[in-house]
Amino acid sequence: MRADAAFFAPQAWVDGAWAFDVRLDVAADGTWRAITPQGSAQGATVLDGPVLPGIVNAHSHAFQRAIAGLTEQGSGTDDFWSWRDRMYRVALRITPQALRAVATQLYTELLQGGYTEVCEFHYLHHAPDGRPYADPLAMCRALVDAAADAGIGLTLLPVLYERAGFTQPALRDDQRRFRTDVARVLALRDGVRALSRDARGPVAAGVAVHSLRAAAPGSIRALAAAVHDDPAPLHIHVAEQQAEVDDALAATGRRPIDWLADECALDARWQLVHATHASAGEIERVARTGAGVVLCPSTEANLGDGLTDLPRWLANGTTLSLGSDSHVGRAWPAELRLLEYGQRLALRARNVAADPASQQPATAAHLFERVRHGSGVAAGHACWGLEPGARADLLVLDVETPGLPGVPARHLLDALVFATDAPAFAQVMVAGRWIERDHAREATRRDAYTDALEQLWRDEGQ
């Protein structure tokens, strides 16, 4: 157990707004013992800038960091499905050692981008020939070790993945590393939970279903039944592509989210990733169940997925969180900016996500508070943010970052999201521990990452 600690911030994001002269007391178990606006600085370490809570990156495929920036040469017929074929070529070659190097670099970058936990949607389980490793947890261990190396919190979500499509009962050969059934997913979850007892950082595990097209209806229902009394999250890709919606209608007679709402008892543990092509009726159904939606703006833009109906999700009070998915972007301020700008372009309006009716006219503040709350739900935390009982994660803003100097205190969050491009976090804390910037260690990680990528592309003849 560590000793209690206390910090003092000139301003901090508390209860959905900026508070001033805030004392933050950390308990020995790495949670917030007390958060006190207009508090005393006596005996506390005074922080150098304004403080924000960390954000959970609620959707990650760590191995896809290896292809970020390498799929942008067009053929004239590029879409999500052609990108997927390119991604599979990396998925077939990456080893546990390379995955650890890639994920460590990624998780270090996510911390620098303001994320203090990542939900890893993990379906890369077996050896390149499709046979299980002697250690079934080999790829999971690589991710757990990478999170510890970087210092980020991790919620690992082993994925149910059985088939190539609604009318294809088996996987394609280039999906052979993904094969799981319900029993295997549960065994992986339990194995990760056993690993967490000796992990060097915060580690938890839930489960996931890849998508309706990739798992049989009976298996989805069986997995949902098997985890009915488990408070951990259950994530699923849904309605990311219009083609998926069309295929679901053809195969089941229902849209994907309608099918889930009909066949599964959706609740707050369910996190619907993307939900880009959700109908108005489906959005209302999701809101009634309490299920959450994980939006991944940079990946959805990069893959040409389309724009979700953000105003309707917001108006219905849906729990929202952010993910960086394929990791073409790795900072939450940029994700929020892109989320809002996509709506501005589509609707030809400004400040689409502002909520003046509830006394929140600041666009960034409204979006940030919604995803701050959704962060904890997506990762299975009972509470999240600068509040007693939550894990003691925080971000200290560097107010000298271009875009922030001279900005009035109440506009700092807007300026961070809409006027700042450079990394803006001077310090990051996870579970009461500072993530120390060690340039020599970071250089070693980059070298390992570079070596892993060079081997991957050498194998492909690049």
Structural notes for this entry:
The chain folds into two domains: 94 residues, Urease, subunit C, domain 1; 325 residues, Metal-dependent hydrolases (TIM Barrel), CATH 3.20.20.140. Helix content is 37%, strand content 19%. The chain contains 14 helices and 17 strands. Strands 6, 7, 8, 9, 10, 11, 12, 13 and 14 form a nine-stranded parallel β-sheet that branches. A four-stranded mixed β-sheet has the order 3-2-1-4, with no helix packed on it. Helix 2 packs parallel to helix 3, helix 2 packs across helix 14 and helix 12 crosses helix 13. The protein starts with a strand and ends with a helix.
Globular, elongated, flat, extended or rod-shaped: what is the shape?
globular
Average pLDDT score: 95
What are the segments in which pLDDT stays under 50 over at least 5 consecutive residues?
none
Radius of gyration: 21 Å
Question: Helix tally?
Answer: 14
Q: Specify the oligomeric state.
A: single chain
Q: How much strand content do the residues show?
A: 15-25%
The largest sheet is: 9 strands, parallel
What's the CATH C level of the largest domain? Alpha Beta
CATH homologous superfamily grouping of the largest domain: Metal-dependent hydrolases
Distance between the termini: 49 Å
User: How many discrete structural domains?
Assistant: 2
Helix and strand composition category: alpha/beta
Q: Give the number of DSSP strands.
A: 17
